[in-house]
């Protein structure tokens, strides 16, 4: 219900739920973790939305616009998270970036190729949620910060759960600024944004807290995002996505009707293949790989 209300409140189109539901089977950080409590791309999105709405409400900004951007920002993500994105970016002419694919999904692919009638503000926020971009609205800027806060916060929490990290591993120069527990850090980041941005023409953090956030992000890259325990299976995921891409690039007539129709209307085959593969959940991608490449048993009658 949240997704329907948010998208219809900020544009005149209705939100198609299936791409959002597929996020529950798309990797956040840990590939096929053994446990029910690790984050997925859907739980990440919901946490971004929750943080962003909290900030927007405190600053008396448009909560519905903020939520719509948050719920749509990762709809274009590939199976297996950034591992899948790297493969498509390498193989697809013109590259592949999940923020651009998220906008393409709501603009073109939704509603069986008709797209959603979203406002420019929602579309801008979805496209520009990455750290290297700059949203034009305050609500989009809130989501941009909330995305980074959410993934650092919950990825660290998952790393504690997986025993990849211990709380005492976090450098003291960071904990002295933002706190010694996940809850303290999340409170610090959100409250700092509200205090720093109050009455200002842009969303910002204070310099000490922003520097701590950057240092924490670097710490996570060095200790979790490149850790062989959490990332040891990524080469298999990358090989799987590459195999699917090469197969459908040469056998594109086996793709669904939407992709075939778009190719007939002038969409390059490679783009249509990226559309199809990026829409897959981890589970569906593995199923298609098994169907296409793993020999099946047979019986002689």
Overview of this protein structure:
- With 301 residues, the protein is mostly helical.
- The chain is built from 16 helices and no strands.
- It has helices spanning 2-10, 17-22, 41-58, 63-72, 81-91, 98-113, 120-127, 138-161, 172-178, 182-197, 207-225, 228-231, 234-250, 257-264, 269-278, 282-293.
- Helix 14 runs antiparallel to helix 15.
- It is globular and about 70 Å long.
- It starts with a helix and ends in an 8-residue tail after the last helix.
- The model is unreliable at 1-15 (pLDDT under 50).
Classify the beta-strand content into a percent band: under 5%
What is the H/E order? HHHHHHHHHHHHHHHH
**Average pLDDT reading:** 88
Number of helical segments with 4 or more residues: 16
Principal-axis shape equals: globular
The beta-strand count equals 0
Give the structural class: mainly alpha
**How would a textbook summarize the main sheet?**
none
Low-pLDDT stretches are 1-15
Please give the alpha-carbon distance between the first and last residues.
52 Å
Q: Determine the fraction of residues in helical runs and give it as a percent range.
A: 55-70%
What is the rounded Rg? 20 Å
Topology overview:
Blueprint: H1 2-10, H2 17-22, H3 41-58, H4 63-72, H5 81-91, H6 98-113, H7 120-127, H8 138-161, H9 172-178, H10 182-197, H11 207-225, H12 228-231, H13 234-250, H14 257-264, H15 269-278, H16 282-293
Helix pairs in contact: 1-4, 3-4, 3-8, 3-10, 4-7, 4-8, 5-13, 7-8, 8-10, 8-11, 9-11, 13-15, 13-16, 14-15
């Amino acid at each position: 219900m949240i997704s329907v209300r948010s998208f219809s409140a900020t544009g005149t189109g209705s939100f198609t739920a299936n791409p959002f539901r597929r996020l529950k089977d798309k990797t956040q950080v840990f590939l096929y973790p053994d446990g029910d409590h690790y984050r997925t791309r859907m739980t990440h999105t919901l946490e971004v939305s929750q943080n962003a709405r909290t900030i927007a409400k405190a600053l008396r900004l448009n909560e519905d616009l903020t939520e719509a951007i948050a719920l749509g920002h990762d709809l274009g993500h590939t199976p297996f998270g950034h591992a899948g994105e790297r493969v498509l970016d390498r193989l697809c002419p013109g590259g592949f970036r999940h923020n651009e694919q998220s906008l393409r999904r709501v603009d073109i692919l939704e509603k069986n190729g008709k797209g959603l009638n979203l406002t420019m503000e929602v579309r801008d926020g979805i496209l520009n949620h990455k750290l290297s971009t700059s949203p034009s609205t305050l609500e989009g800027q809130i989501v941009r910060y909330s995305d980074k806060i959410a993934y650092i916060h919950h990825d660290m929490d998952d790393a504690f759960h997986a025993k990849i990290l211990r709380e005492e591993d976090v450098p003291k120069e960071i904990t002295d600024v933002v706190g010694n527990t996940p809850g303290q850090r999340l409170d610090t980041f959100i409250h700092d944004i509200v205090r720093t941005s109050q009455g200002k023409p842009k969303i910002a953090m204070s310099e000490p807290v922003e520097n701590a956030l950057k240092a924490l992000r670097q710490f996570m890259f060095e200790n979790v995002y490149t850790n062989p325990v959490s990332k040891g299976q990524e080469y298999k995921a990358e090989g799987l996505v590459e195999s699917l891409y090469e197969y459908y690039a040469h056998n594109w007539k086996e793709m669904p009707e939407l992709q075939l129709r778009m190719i007939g209307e002038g969409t390059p085959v490679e783009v249509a293949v990226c559309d199809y593969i990026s829409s897959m959940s981890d589970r569906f991608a593995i199923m298609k790989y098994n169907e296409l490449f793993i020999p099946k048993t047979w019986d002689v009658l």
